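Please review this pair:
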Amino acid sequence: MARLIITRTIQAFVICFLLSQFLIGAQAQDARKQDIQRQMGSLVSLLQPSAKQKVSQAARVLEDKIFSSTSKVDFYASSVSAIKSQFGDLSSQDIDALVSLVMFEVMKSEEEALKEIMDEMHKMNQVKEKQREYIESMKKQKASYKEKLKESREKANTPQLTQNRPAMAKISREMAATRRLNIKYTKTPKLPPPKDVRQMSASQLEEEIRNTEENINSLGDMSTLQQIELQDALQKEQQFIQTISNIMKSRGDTLKSIIQNLK
C-alpha cells in the first residue's frame, strides 16, 4: 500500500511538473496570442458575407477533423482540405490567408472549451480538499475517543452510527464533453455528503477514514488525467497560434487586400 502511494505521488509530481513547464511556456506566448486576436479580429471584419459564411463552414469541417481524430493530424493540410471543400481551387496566397482565418475561428471555439476543462479541474480540486478536511475531522474525533475510553469499552460507551447509509461505493471514472468542439474530459464525480463524525464509533471512523483515503487516491488519478487532457488541448491551441503567426509574418500587408477580395 505504501509503495502504491509513493508511486502515485511520484507520477502526480511528474505530471504536475511537466504541466507547469508547459503552462509557463503558454504564458510566455500570451502577448503574442493577444496580438494575433487583435489583428485577426480586424481582418475578419473585412470579409464579404459570402466568404465569411464559407470560412465558418470550413472551420466546422476542420474542428471535426482535428478534435474527432485519435491519430496525429496535420493542421495545415487539414485546413487546406477544409478550405477547398468550400472555396474550390485557389492561389497559394489565398489559401494561406484562409488558413489563418479558419484556424482563428477554431481557436476561438477552443478558448471556450479550455475554460470548461479548467473549471472542471477547479471542481476536482475542491472535492479533493473537502475529502482531506473530512479525514482530518474524523482523525480528531478518533483521537478524542482514545483519550477518554479504553478499547475494550468502546462499544458500550461510544455513540453508534445512527445514519442509515449504504457502504461507500467505489468511485468510477466518468467522461464528459465540452459544449464547443466536443472535447472529451474527465468529469468530477459526485460524492455523498460527509457523515456526522460525532455519531460514529472509533472502529467506524477507521473504516470511513480508509474509504475516504481511497477516494482521495482515485480523485488524484482522475485529476492527473484532467491535467493530461488540458495539456493536449493547450498543445493544439499553440499549433494554431504558431501557424497563424507564421502566415502573418510571411504574407504581411498583403493579407488585408487578399481577404477583402475573397468571395
Summary: The chain has one domain: 2-150+161-260. The beta strands are 174-177, 184-187.
